[in-house]
Protein: RNA polymerase sigma70 factor
Organism: Flavobacterium aquatile LMG 4008 = ATCC 11947
Amino acid sequence: MSENLEQTFVQQLRENQNIIHKICRLYTSDGDAHKDLFQEITIQLWKAFPKFRGDSKFSTWAYRVALNTAITLYRKSTRSVSTVEYEKHSFFISQDEYNSEEEEQIKLMYQAVHQLNDIEKALVFMYLEDKDYTEIAETLGISEVNARVKMNRIKGKLKKILNP
């Protein structure tokens, strides 16, 4: 790998690491699992980065890789994850601390979202990130109409969970 490719990757990852943290928050329940998932997503992004053609925004591509990694890992009944040693590379990415106690309402929303299935979680996450339905559909590999219909159903589910 060229040094320029590494620098580009590190810069893009720094600029987009908050989306990875949010995905980790959706699919994990404690700090250690969050860090493990963050590391695994970072590794998967790094491994796939040479194939990134720039057909979509880096953030859209990163969403897809991160969501697929999270869904794949947490659907497995065992937590044995094969990892790739990346210390040999010349870059290290510092993780910004993600403070989960900032707002009580966010905690309640996360608790409600945790009750959704994996695809519903991904859709809610992207919706809350103000992604338009075109980008949501592209990232999740579904039609735009399907994304809208699913989101309306999810909104109803969340209302029932939050206001029984």
